[in-house]
Amino acid sequence: MLASLGDLVEDVIVRLDGTVNVASDTHAHISRRRGGSAANVAVRAASLGFAARFLGQVGTDAIGAALIAELDDEGVDASMVRRAGSTGTIVALVDRLGERSMLTDRQACLDLSDPDPAWLDGVETLHVPFYSLASGSVATTATTVIGWAHERDVAVSIDMSSTAVMYEVGIDEVVRRLAAAAPTVVFANSDEAAALAIDAALVGALTVVKRGPRSALIHRIDGSTVEVEAIAVPSVNDTTGAGDAFAAGFLTSPGWVVDPVTACETGHRAAAELLRHRC
Q1: Distance CA 239, CA 95 (A)
Q2: Which of 7, 77, 244, 259 is catalytic?
Q3: Each residue of 100-159: pLDDT tens digit?
Q4: Is 244 assigned a catalytic role?
């Protein structure tokens, strides 16, 4: 089983037809869907036939109830999701090239507290986006659960999530928190890798740099680096969640710890499938 600890929110996707007209109207296509990096990973893992559990908190509002019901429908174990406060929202502004910028209001996600050791029952891999280590009660909770994971020999995966969050925390502090978490694998995109000056395995962990349509880089703990070609997907108009799909594919590949190349290929396929659905 893969457990993913972090955000479950409502995504509001705003696809812009052009440049925003400040103080006036701008044509856009607006849609709503389930979001949150941790929830995305759990859902994609379940879609690949892997047992998946989501750990997090949503509000007591109708949106929170609907999001939990959607996880259930997608085959994710949402039985341990906490309810309190108001459900978070992320507005994703998507430009004509498919690149997105996020406006985040995480609300209840930040307040997850009082972790339960039962969260890890039956779990082989714990995935934690760095969002969950950055601030709020959830950061203390995530640190505690990661400690329990190590005690149980559960593999720990951390995705760096956001350069803005990293700079807010401070790069030196980010590296300190990563080292303390002692992850088995770290995922970063190109911008996050540049911010962390990644050119080898980070904090002693298998390190995977996702580079969009370019080959991914695998930095092994033995000092070697391998490139794994990505899968071309034409006419992409929304890349939201592609990195999460990649992580889910990677982490559900059998033996990913010892065979990260095959896992990376599986990650590319999972991301490509999501992007084709969005074209």
Answers
A1: 10
A2: 244
A3: 788 999 999 999 999 999 999 999 999 999 999 999 999 999 999 999 999 999 999 999
A4: yes
Domains of the chain with bracketed CATH: 2-278 (3.40.1190.20)
Instruction: State the Rg of the chain over Cα.
Output: 18
* Residues 186/133, Cβ–Cβ less than 8 Å: no
SS (H, E, C) 123-192: CCEEEEECHHHHCCHHHHHHHHHHHHHHHCCCEEEEECCCHHHHHHHCHHHHHHHHHHHCCCEEEEEHHH
Q: Contact, 269 vs 255, CB < 8 A?
A: no
In this structure, are residues 158 and 183 in contact, taking their beta carbons and an 8 Å threshold? yes
Determine the 3-state secondary structure of 100 from DSSP: strand
Classify strands 9-16 and 2-5 as parallel, antiparallel or unpaired: unpaired
Judge if pTM exceeds 0.90.
yes
